[in-house]
């Protein structure tokens, strides 16, 4: 027999769970102080998540998907992107959206069921809104990247999905055609070990999810998803490869979902509390904080000042969100089409007319 193909999957980690460097760090991390903005964004993401869950539990927000324990993935990938790149997220990338300029109150509006939450005033308007259907955003990324290639634009489409999405046919279709067309795309798999109540081992017998890239003829790598330096480095290299006409890549970030799938889930029904408790030893925020402290660029006073500032920022956003007047009923027609079809335009006019005649749109 003749071997016709072989492959290896490489795993990247720069900080161990205790925050100790394992060797030379990438250039962007050689100055520890340069990592403070990443740390701040990770803490902001976690505290925003906690506030959003509290709002949901008190009936002031809809179903919400937390990224507790996964902040290094979402912040790490966003920090590697350029402003002109296009983020095509799933429903667990609040941290990435915040890094790219989306306002806290805009995220709250979205999760509160208000489409104005996807009409960003500050973030890149070319970024895509949250995608709740599983894996469909991967197809969108391939299409966006194909357009970039046709236009010869030095930009990259970055799609993010969970481990469960890699079991969906849309995921395979997306990476397959991305490989065929050699488009500038990066597919980030946030492997948090759980597709709602289905564990990683019950989804695939493959040793890694990164190796699924091999069938598409594109590179696949693994990174420690609890090490923000590793995530930024892996995604950054994939982005530069795509920008240099090297085609698409897949980055699997290995982490763990420390909470329920969403606020509509009860993870205690399908996994043991002691397993989750043990995973806190890999907390990405504690890991980076320890590294910064040991490097002498972060102290208790810095932490206290940051927490105070973040709390004020989040509380202010909540106040603005809760004070936002509701949309009128006819607004349901306003976020589907660039130009409303005549039939729907007539319906919109009828709804608007009845609303104004009745004197209320509550």
Q: Helix tally?
A: 12
Quickly count the domains: 2
Sequence of secondary-structure elements = EHHEHHHEHEEEHEHEHHHH
CATH superfamily of the largest domain: Thiamin diphosphate (ThDP)-binding fold, Pyr/PP domains
Low-pLDDT sequence parts: none
Amino- and carboxy-terminal Cα gap: 73 Å
The strand line-up of the biggest sheet is 1-7-8-4-3-2
User: Based on DSSP secondary structure assignment, what is the total number of beta strands?
Assistant: 8
CATH class value of the largest domain: Alpha Beta
What's the overall average pLDDT, rounded?
95
For this structure, the CATH topology of the largest domain is Rossmann fold
Strand content: 5-15%
Give a structural overview.
With 362 residues, the protein is an alpha/beta fold. It folds into two domains: 11-324, Thiamin diphosphate (ThDP)-binding fold, Pyr/PP domains (Rossmann fold), CATH 3.40.50.970; 328-362, no CATH class. 42% of the residues lie in helices and 9% in strands. The protein has twelve helices and eight strands. Strands 1-7-8-4-3-2 form a six-stranded parallel sheet, with helices on both faces. Strands 5-6 form a two-stranded antiparallel ribbon. Helix 6 links the parallel strand 3 (157-162) and strand 4 (185-191). The protein is globular and about 70 Å long. The model has no long low-confidence stretch (mean pLDDT 95).
